[in-house]
Amino acid sequence: MCGPYAKHAVPWWWAMRYTLPQYFSPSKPHIDRAKKFFNRAEYTLGSPRRVFFPESQREEGPKALPEIVVMGQPNVGKSSIVRSMVHEDVKVIVATYKGTTKLAHFYKIGFRFFLVDIPGYEEDDKVMGNTIMREVLQRRPMVKSVLFLVDCRGGLTDLEQYRIQHLEQYHVPYTFVVTKCDRASEWQLTRTVRQINKIVDSPWHVRCHREVFLTSAKEQIGIDELMVYMCARAGAMSVKKTEIEKEQSLTIPID
Ligand SMILES: Nc1nc2c(ncn2[C@@H]2O[C@H](COP(=O)(O)OP(=O)(O)OP(=O)(O)O)[C@@H](O)[C@H]2O)c(=O)[nH]1
Ligand SMILES: [Mg+2]
Fold this sequence. Notes:
Bound molecules: guanosine-5'-triphosphate, magnesium ion
CATH topology: Rossmann fold
């Protein structure tokens, strides 16, 4: 491609968002505002147990700020998503191997809410990473939303389906974020999107939000939208509600 837009060519996969049940498309002023919040991100030392969380976040109370938690399998790109949003001086460790993040890391975004990067979950519930995940998610009403990251190449695995059930049990709302889209083939991305659409449309997944995000932290695509979305979910910004919340009551078929 040549001409003035050559440098900003949109990759083929970005058009796949039109196949999603609902995609989130904020305006430029909203994006600029969200970026201001994220530019003021502050890192608080990671902690394995609730008693070591930032003081305001240890228990529910008027001082507790809302939290958005980034969750997913090891190496799915959780820390990379966080790093792509915050200022480069903020400490975020990313590596090619699994198990890089070992603690719950709290990033205070514009003094309004916390973005929490946790270790990847494993199959074995006794591992430290899973214990930390439970510490962060269980019975903590300040968790306003979980970004549930899925690697677009692998599709939804059994373990991921199992963790989604846990989020339903914990009554934590969650949003699907597809990562590493720049690496996927068309077939891989189509399969992943189809699997996610099935869950989003299912009446059994009541905590699942209808927006789905396609992202590439490497190419910095889909990140701006996600930043605005997080600010809106955490109540730091008001964005016109494009989302049709799912019915909270379930219709159980009787035979
Ligand atoms: N091509 C590409 N690579 C990515 C992207 N996001 C992350 N990666 C790579 O994936 C690897 C893992 O990234 P991390 O962000 O450390 O993954 P994580 O989920 O935090 O991993 P753990 O902390 O071990 O659970 C790194 O080598 C990143 O460079 C992306 O959007 N595109
Ligand atoms: Mg990490």
